[in-house]
Amino acid sequence: MLEIRKKLSSFYPTYVLAIVSIGYVLGELGHYMVGVTSKAMAMDLHYGDIACQLNNTNYYLSDLPVICSDANSSDTCMSLTIDDEPYCEWTYNGLGLDYQILAGPSFIAVFTVVGVIMGYLADKFNRVKMLGICTIIFSIALIVSGGVKEYWHLVLLRMIMAAGESACNPLSTGILSDLFPEEKRALVMSIFNWGIYGGYGIAFPVGRYVPPINAWDLGWRVCYYGAGIVALIFGFLTLFTLWEPERQTIGEDAAQNPDAKKVTIWTVMSEPRVIMLCLAASIRHCGGMCFAYNCDLYYQIYFPDYDLGWWLFAVTIGIGSIGVVVGGIISDKFVGKMGIRSRVIILALSQIIATPFAFGSVYCEPLGAMITLGFSYFFAEMWFGILFAILVEIVPLHVRSTTVGIFLFVMNNIGGNLPIAVEPVSKAIGYRESLYVFYVAFYLLSSLMFLLTIFLMPGNNPQPPAPQKQFNGIDNVVFSNDEVHLPPITSLVHNTKRTNESKRL
């Protein structure tokens, strides 16, 4: 029985990683699904912009005498016909300021503020119990979202969902960093943080293909009911099958630093390397969020006669997953030889390589866009896991989760709210051009900032290991500098009485 327990215990860290990662995937599915279901929701709840759109799947754009988007009024839209049959409709397109508020600020404002609170509480209380309760909260919000009747109901539930999901990253990051050693940490963090892209990728087929089935006459609502119920199951698994691990000192904190516990959260957050990391991550996050919120709508508007839902799913889940794993493995491979700086080098290089392919994913026609998007995702998705492996390794144990919470607060407030500027900029210079600015250019800017952060990180100066000596008595090798202090004269006198007593014993 003991042997079975030992064998099962060796799988426990992997089980924890699976449970918290799947829970994170489901939370991010709820987060990003609004971008794919927005058109169906807008038509049902009546919010956002109204535009002229193609409503006939039998025609390609090349077949149309006039493109639907060229019509700027309902009368003009309905007058566009082929063989006296209208091929356009004047209806909600899922975009507009209402959508941008729903997708970004309503979620991010609560997500970031509560995330800081959760990070602080995680340094004080049981992280596993808190994570389980928060997972249950956002799963219930997801389920209730499927029954909304008004736009403001949806906004309110997005805020509750954000409050629950805000616990996932700071709590899970602390739990996983205590369960896994340094040589696996970046890979583990990459797998966990892939939950963002896993949820985002799954949102494409779920949001595109489930609503048209109209199961039980519920349309888009089935997506939220289903995701919420599955998330609820994993919330209970987290609450009742995981336990709080012993907190470990890691990275720089594990080095002999007697002043580590004196370091406050303000000291940590004011370090130049942390500030630069945070700013670079915020810019990179803005680029990623901008594409995530607008990707499906962009391809539907520019290529309405191409069904790219499964392509986007395959690129995000398949190629993005490979990039996540490869980035973690490479980072873990070099960190032992080059120190934490090697993680930043890999982080910067991966984003630099991803930038031109990100440009291609917006510039090219559908086939070229999917190919370049695949290359972009392979390199771009390396970033999140490596970033948080760096962060937990340069932050003292007693403020680790709080630091992650504050870091996410800044990163998500900048990266999550700035994409709202896509709406006015797109009206001024065009939708595609606005993605060049907020998606491609922000990738490039963040990669250059990560590159500068390399010079703020210490190199690896490994100390040679102490020689292994064999002693029959007491090993006093730690007192290696005793020779500089001369012993008192009395210690040189042989005490025959003590020796005789030792012999008798």
Verbal overview:
There is one protein chain. The protein is mainly alpha-helical and 505 residues long. It folds into 2 domains: 2-49 and 93-456, Growth Hormone, Chain: A (Up-down Bundle); 52-90, no CATH class. It is built from 19 helices and 4 strands. The chain has a two-stranded antiparallel ribbon with strand order 1-4. A two-stranded antiparallel ribbon has the order 2-3. The chain is globular and about 75 Å long. Residues 461-505 have low confidence and may be disordered. Keywords: Membrane, Transmembrane, Transmembrane helix, Transport. One of its GO terms (cellular component) is membrane.
Fraction in beta strands? under 5%
Can you tell me the residue ranges where pLDDT is under 50 for at least 5 consecutive residues?
461-505
Structural class: mainly alpha
Per the principal axes of the C-alpha atoms, what is the gross shape?
globular
Integer tally of domains: 2
**Could you give the order of strands across the largest sheet?**
1-4
Percentage of residues assigned to helices? 55-70%
Name of the CATH homologous superfamily of the largest domain: MFS general substrate transporter like domains
For the record, what CATH class of the largest domain applies?
A: Mainly Alpha
Count of DSSP-assigned helices: 19
Which radius of gyration do the C-alpha atoms yield? 28 Å
- From the coordinates shown, what is the CATH architecture of the largest domain? Up-down Bundle
Distance between the termini: 42 Å
Sequence of secondary-structure elements: HEHEEEHHHHHHHHHHHHHHHHH
**Quick check: average pLDDT?**
79
GO cellular component, one term: membrane
Subcellular location: Membrane
Keywords: Membrane, Transmembrane, Transmembrane helix, Transport
GO molecular function: transmembrane transporter activity
